[in-house]
Write a structure and sequence with these properties.
Blueprint (H helix, E strand, L loop, with lengths): L4 H10 L18 E2 L5 E2 L15 E2 L17 E2 L6 E2 L11 E4 L2 E4 L5 H8 L7
Antiparallel strand pairs: 1-2, 1-3, 4-5, 6-7
Length: 126
């Protein structure tokens, strides 16, 4: 994954291994906020125009907002927020599926332990 100079500076200032660091980043450095309905907002102090919610959560400053349309065989995690990202463009808007004993499963329902196990799995090519 290739990061811009600005993104690299943010990573170097706030990165801690295996910890989500969004709460340590000043609000002034968070470019976008996301509402519970999925609408992206430019400010924390904005009411969502779609659902009228008033408390959006911060989005990772490394998110490119460029939604991928490809299927990738590899998983990488964001060095800042430790969430799965698209390996080609860094988008955080990805759906991760896990294949266990022949079944495909969406990992959004995995608990924290199962997600850590998925992130630490050894990848092999056969």
């Amino acid at each position: 994954m290739h990061y811009t100079e600005t993104q690299t500076a943010i990573i170097n200032r706030f990165k801690k291994p295996h910890i989500s660091n969004l709460d340590k980043i000043p609000e002034s450095e968070i470019p976008y906020w996301i509402c519970s309905c999925g609408k992206i907002l430019p400010s924390k102090n904005m009411t969502c125009p779609d659902c009228s919610a008033t408390s959006p959560r911060p989005m990772c400053p490394l998110d490119t907002l460029d939604v991928p349309t490809t299927i990738e065989a590899t998983l990488i995690t964001c060095p800042l927020c430790n969430e799965f990202i698209h390996p080609g463009n860094g988008s955080h808007d990805v759906t991760v599926r896990s294949r266990v004993t022949g079944y495909l499963a969406d990992v959004t329902n995995f608990n924290a332990g199962k997600l850590d196990e998925l992130k630490n799995r050894q990848k092999n090519d056969f």
